[in-house]
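Hi R.,

Here are the chain sequences for the assembly we discussed:
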Amino acid sequence: MKINSFLERADVTAAVPIGSKEEILSSLVDLLVSNHQELKRDLLLQVLLKREQLRSTAIEEGVAFPHGRVPGLPKLISCFGRCRKGVDFDSFDGKPTRFFFVLLIPENAEGTHLKALARLNRLFQDEHFRHTLLEAEDADSVFDAILAQDASC
Amino acid sequence: MNIVVIGAGVVGTDLAEQLSTEGHRVAVVDSDRRKVKELNEKLDVLGVYGNAGMPSILDKAGIRAADMVIAVTDVDEINLVVGMLAARLGVKHRIVRIRNREYTAADALLPLGELGIDHVINPEPSIVQALAGMLEYPGSCDYATLADGQVLMLGFDIAEDSPSAGKTLAELREVGDLDAFLFLYIHRGDEVIVPRGSDCILPGDNVHVLASADTVKFVLPMIHRRPVEVDCVIISGTSRVALKLAETIQDRVERVYLIEPDPERAEEAAADLKKVTVLRGEPTDLDVLEEAALDKCDLFCALADDDQRNMLSALLVKRHGRALAAVQVHQPEFVPVLDSLGVEIVLNPRLVTVGEIMMHVRRGHVHSVTRLAEGRAEILEMEVPEGSPAVKSKLRELDFPKNALLGAIVRDGIMQIPSGETICKPGDTVLVFALPDAIGRIEKLFTRRRWFAGS
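And here is the predicted structure of the full complex:
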């Protein structure tokens, strides 16, 4: 499952503000809502926060995959944000979190989102790729780096 | 079925008991008169005393009317001869345990298929795979792959500070549905619990989880507060399992030590395993263990062929180190002792062997049988056949036994957690967790009726 099938250039930001879990997720949801007017801000935020409450989706090496199932969503929608400084997102390995890949999953997705998560997880295991993302100048070059990595592995 | 089991060792006895409980007609042959007598007294099976390599003895056990022969004596050669004789006598299914690789290798001098042996059982590869898997998912104490690797089964001990501790299954299910994992059962004290929504996970529980290989990364943080690191491993023994494990992990783990008392075997191991530090000495000698950096050891694997040596060395390690311990024992009586010593991982070739054999006994399209909780439960991996009751109605409308759980469906290579509304499709792979009393009904649900009985 290729990432360009569910991530659009407009849904990428290289300037996630430093803040609490809720503030970070809010800023990412705001980005999504500004590009996809049909999305309901409060619902998205609630879905993502509920999942985070059970356990943080920040797994390791500065990468988090906030995700949740959204009623009424027609297809898989995602956004990506980078926070160069890194924030405390209650990650599994205790390291600060710098990359946020948000996945919004339709209610009857039948598991296709698992393939997306698996693919993302594989991409982000590459240390060199994480470094490139961190160094990228702006949102455009972040998106280009993701596409390049997506094409190469 | 009429089944003849050759060898009344631990595996043979276990099988005989399981098979007779499930209603098969079972005969057991052994050359130890005392064991045969014991079997005749204890189980509802026909015990036959004699050398199973002789056709006359096999005749006494009713081999000509048998549907299946299972040869599990300790001697590969006897098992081989039994398999060959059974083939000549027209027994339909011939299952033979062979441990020596010289017989089983792809380029073996005697191809077993040509000798009429259709199923060779060897638990060792599964045990090595399980141990290597536990290293890949540190903090797990059981591991098996199912459905061609799409699904992992992992076992965990729940610590006081585990994020799952104190949560109900219903709460965890919300995450599980999304991330494709499922709590299969809870082993609490002496009890095996098939959990329902209101049940709570408690510190001290041992839980088993089914997880999609794609998203297993999300499961570990639900179980542990922080990742468990394994940088230093000590292996005791030069059994085939020990050597294979050392070879498998030497590139992945920073430091691997191997302890072997026999000078020649130690030397051979050192020559073969370039990245492993081989020490000659007794694993029950604290000085030797300390030389193997016991204080830094994260995982100790007692894999010698001698149960007692394994237990003693684990006892020392538990007392003087902080390592997790994995201990291989053949004798079932030792398992509770290991539990009381605080040994986290008990490796049981007997359970693996019985599981691999039961796969051939179960009805329907069964791909694998994983025996759990000391053989008190199993996971059946089955392909759903066209025309079986399971494809005809929603799960909640099926007459699904209480002591069983449809854990996962693998459809088009994707693992799904079923709900009451799910309907199985022909060709799906299903993973069903079942306690023994539920197995018969599970088999019926996933088998196509081939005939219409009068009543």
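The domain at 232-347 of chain B is CATH 3.40.50.720 (Rossmann fold). The CA atoms of residues 189 and 205 of chain B lie 8 Å apart.

Let me know if anything looks off.

Best,
T.
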